[in-house]
Design a protein that fits this description.
globular, binds uracil, 6 strands, 8 helices
Length: about 190
Amino acid sequence: LEKLLVEINKLKCNLKETATNVVFSDGDYNSNIMIVGEAPGANEDLVGKPFIGDAGKLLDKMLNFIDLSRDNFYISNLVFWRPPGNRPPNDKEISVCIEATKKHIHIINPKLLIFVGSIAAKSLLDKKEGITKLRGEKHIYVDNTYGIKIPARAIFHPAYLMRNPIEKKTTWNDLIEIDDFIRRKRLIIS
Ligand code: URA
């Protein structure tokens, strides 16, 4: 992981010009469960840790309902630097970061991937459909470079849920399915 972080710091990404910090990961790197978000926001950029602002607090709260916390999952983002003004990362920025994220997934080698939000889900599942379609479905993350296949789920981004609280109910159902999968496969080790 330290080697990967060195490689990430060498990536030629325009977002580095405006970002304060690289935002890499948090949680237990031995976990079977890896969560991948979109890109850091303002708080994450200042501190250098993923999902620590308002959206991150909501995500932690949602995951706590199914007994997940940063003691038993690992969390990162598709893009490692904050896009200015929290705009979504563009295709160029995603393409610069995605190979490192795939390597990140390969190193952690989780038994379940949870993609948070449309951009992470679409990019890493290589799908054209948006999150409204991808959530609630069972996916397999495939990486032919490393020869890995990992069960994957997609959920609405907590920032989206803060703007559209009506979707909290669907996300609750998605979390119950995820919890069921985690229990059946006995994925929580700590
Ligand atoms: N939103 C994300 O997708 N990732 C973060 O780290 C923070 C907010």
